[in-house]
Write a structure and sequence with these properties.
With about 350 residues, the chain is α/β, with parallel strands linked by helices. It is built from eleven helices and 19 strands.
Length: about 350
């Protein structure tokens, strides 16, 4: 079931009285029920402008934007607050407001003019806190919890608003790596178990590739949408990044493209240690060639590894990958390790 439809949509704003400035390309996207969607594109392409347009903080320039088949312009503000909730990218810095009170703000569209909470409202607030695993922290003040917990509280507020659609503008922007993955995994779980349509903008491409159902991709040449794997297969990301990044099919991640200028043989049983050494060698400009006269032999001693170097002016045994990389870097001129492709 399609929930949001963007057709031939132009977004932007009015400069002065008459001049209209379009931001980004013409947009054709759609979002279905129970999907987690990542909005991806370079800075300045219009991701935040698109977010503001969908949540009705900004008017469309032209084209169609519909929600549940109803034209965006025909939805009044009260009805809108029951359809879409929004989590901003700005970190929450509020004193004397508890987690429970913050989440309760999500019930504002449904309370009376005095803002009184009914038993149903309180049950929804409790459920929202439980879904983001913040029940035990509900009485703490917002400035007493971590950034990751604050972001969970903001998501709980959006859940308490009980809308079928949730939009988030860079929800992982201020979080550490573990919390980045935790938040996106939480959003995926909410999309699937609660059948919410959740759309978030992000620069965390590697995380998005492994977690989302669909990607909305904006770039200067147009827009694309599809499963992450679809956009990899049809070279959409190559169009976005040009020759700056390459995709690693085994790891499912992007990395900076470089031409490796050194070869070395690696004598090692396939497994985690093999992959780690290959990754380290790649970083300093080496590719694996088992016909090379220079070699690394990996020796396992109980729970430790050592690395025997052969074919160099100096042959030795090293005790860590750090020492191995240091030896190889010293053996070659720094400028010859690798060359970046001309951009």
């Amino acid at each position: 079931m399609v929930i949001i439809e963007l057709s031939e949509l132009k977004i932007g704003y009015t400069v002065g009285k008459h001049q209209i400035k379009q931001i980004g390309p013409i947009i054709n996207f759609n979002a279905s029920k129970g999907e987690l969607i990542a909005l991806i594109g370079p800075n300045g392409i219009g991701k935040s402008t698109l977010m503001r347009t969908i949540i009705n903080l900004q008017s469309t320039l032209s084209g169609e934007l519909s929600i549940f088949g109803k034209s965006h312009g025909n939805i009044n503000r009260d009805e809108f607050s029951t359809l879409i909730s929004f989590v901003s990218t700005e970190p929450v810095r509020v004193t004397n407001l508890s987690v429970n009170q913050l989440v309760a703000l999500g019930r504002f569209p449904y309370t009376n003019w005095q803002g009184q909470l009914t038993s149903t409202d309180k049950e929804i607030i409790e459920e929202s806190l439980e879904l983001v695993n913040l029940t035990k922290m509900k009485d703490l003040y917002i400035d007493e919890i971590s950034d990751g917990e604050r972001q969970r509280a903001m998501i709980a507020r959006a859940l308490a608003q009980n809308t079928p659609v949730i939009l988030l503008d860079e929800p992982t922007a201020y979080l550490d790596l573990i919390n980045k993955y935790d938040i996106i995994h939480l959003l995926l779980d909410l999309a699937h178990t609660k059948q919410k349509t959740i759309i978030f903008s992000t620069h965390e491409l590697n995380i998005a590739l492994s977690q989302v159902d669909k990607i909305w991709l904006m770039h200067n040449n147009g827009v694309k949408q599809g499963a992450p794997e679809d956009l990899i297969l049809d070279s959409s990301f190559s169009e976005l990044f040009g020759n700056k990044l390459e995709f690693n099919w085994q790891s499912g991640t992007f990395k900076q493209y470089k031409i490796l200028n050194k070869n070395i043989a690696l004598i090692c049983i396939q497994g985690n240690i093999y992959e780690l050494i290959v990754k380290a060698l790649d970083r300093i400009g080496y590719s694996i060639d088992n016909k090379s006269t220079q070699s690394i032999e990996v020796i396992k001693l109980e729970n430790e590894y050592s690395f025997k170097i052969k074919g160099f002016a100096k042959e030795m045994e090293l005790k860590s990958i750090y020492e191995l990389c240091g030896f190889l870097r010293k053996d070659q001129k720094a400028d010859d390790r690798f060359q970046f492709r001309d951009l």
